[in-house]
Amino acid sequence: MNKHTNPFPEEAEEEFGQQYKHVRAIERGLAILDAVARNTNSSAAQISAYSGVPRTTVYRILETLENLGYVRRNDEGRIFYLTSKIRMLASNVDSASQLGEIAFPIMEELVQDVLWPSSLTIIDHDAMRIVETTHHLSPYSVHRNAVGTRIPLLTTALGRAYLCFCGEAERLALLENVRGLYDVPTMSRHLERLLHLQQTTRKNGYASSNGETDPRFASFALPIRKSGNVIASMNMIFFRKTMKLEAALEQYLPALNNVVDKIEKEIAGRPVEFENHVPRKQSSRARSAGNLPEIRDRAETTLPTEH
After folding, report:
1. Is the predicted pLDDT of residue 277 greater than 90, yes or no?
2. What pLDDT does 281 receive?
3. What is the DSSP string of 39-53?
């Protein structure tokens, strides 16, 4: 199944049905960049031998890359190496992108099995940011949340799954970041709600939201960890008129748990450190009365579950 569907299939058939020839110059240029990257301080002859591109062509492409600022040569003019400009090409392939690439095949299997959509999110300062989703694959999705969409931290299952399971210092810093989004009475209500849910959420192992951000939908979410630290959260969302939250949890929570287990096993063996957009350092105001009321003292109080 294709990850992204084209809304204009007839145009797609017309545009992509033809068999265009590969652009050989680009293939050779990328082969040379790969050869230089893998063979530091190489001569044109060595690059030619590694890439399989004729030496005369290697010289022409290297000169072009040098003029563009991607390659430099030493003082003698015989040895080539990459410049820091080449990093710009990979600047958007960050740990979040890699996390999405790892998770998507597993998420795709889930939506094919249960049909309800899921999203994978990371922290983005004062919100959760979608890094992958199966909304575009689900027949039951009415809002096609795109990768990159930011969603609320305090009122969604995705945000709560992160907040309730991350470390205390990070949680306090995140709440300080969010504080500026709301007036004082609204922020106080959100904090009270989070405190009511935190103990039960930790005990159950999942977070939920039942029509709080959109009355049509309910959802539940799980944290995703690497090396014991929460790095992301993943949900399943469904229509409230179709089934109750309790029924959805009974039917689908094991499947979502299985998916999260697979993702965690995949990322455990990766050398990449999956970093979120780290919240700013917690200020002294975060601990003062009236900003984050008694978060530290009340975190372990047994309080009612979400209705």
Report:
1. no
2. 43
3. SSSEEHHHHHHHH--
pLDDT tens sequence across 86-127: 766 665 556 788 899 899 999 999 999 999 999 999 998 899
CB 51 within 8 A of CB 16: no
Mean of the per-residue pLDDT values of the chain: 81
pTM for the whole structure: 0.64
Q: Using H for helix, E for strand and C for coil, what is the string for 126-139?
A: CCEEEEEECHHHCC
**Of the candidates 168, 161, 178, the residue with the CA atom closest to the CA atom of residue 224:** 161
What single string gives the DSSP state of each residue in 133-197?
E-GGG-TT-SS-PPTT-EE-SSSSHHHHHHHHHS-HHHHHHHHHHHHTTS-HHHHHHHHHHHHHH
Cα 189 vs. chain centroid, distance in angstroms?
A: 29
Q: What integer is the mean pLDDT of 256-269?
A: 95
CB-CB contact of 172 with 282 (8 Å): yes
- Tell me the one-letter amino acid at 15: E
- Distance (Å, rounded) from C-alpha 71 to C-alpha 280? 36
Task: Show the CA angle centred on residue 251, arms to residues 245 and 254, nearest 5°.
Answer: 110
Nearest to 209 by CA among 157, 154, 152: 157
Q: Among candidates 180, 127, 131, which has minimal Cα distance to 156? A: 127
| Domains delineated in the chain | 9-90 (1.10.10.10), 95-298 (3.30.450.40)
Give, in order, the Cα–Cα distances in Å from 186 to each of 192, 218, 292.
10, 21, 13
The C-alpha atoms of residue 268 and residue 266 are separated, in whole angstroms, by 6
Query: Tell me: the pLDDT tens digits for 191-217?
Result: 999 988 999 999 999 999 999 888 999
